[in-house]
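Shipment paperwork, digital attachment
Item: protein structure file
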Amino acid sequence: MLCDNCKERDAVVHLTRIVENAVTQLHLCEKCAAAKGVETTLAVPQHPLGDILQAVQQQAAVASEDAPSCAFCGATARDFRATGRLGCPHCYDAMERSLRELLRRLHGSSRHVGQRYEAPVTFVDEKSDSLHDLRDRLRRAIESEQFEVAAELRDRIRQLETEVV
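Attachment content:
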């Protein structure tokens, strides 16, 4: 079936319109459908992430077999492209140049410009932990017959216990 609009190419898009109980069918080729605003495979909008991923794949294809490798763990740039993970902290130094380029393309810059992560503050009862540790050290000092050390530990335990009460 030929396109109803240009009458040259095969119709691949079939539109059915219903206006005031009147049904009309329109058969269009891809170009004419795209010209009328109907999404086809020719008129699919490009997404920026797709461009970035394509650039990364092209860089991977262009990269030579002598890509940098980590002297500490032996991981290569090819391993990083395959898994998305580096082998160890030393890999950052070994592959710095390619990582900077990747970060520049992904984030627009290779330097961090956002907020920094701050770990949540946790309140730990330090006295009870240290009191437990001191009692354990006292027990070991007594078992090993280090009585002078044991006496010092005993005094520190008593001091912490009076502070708690």
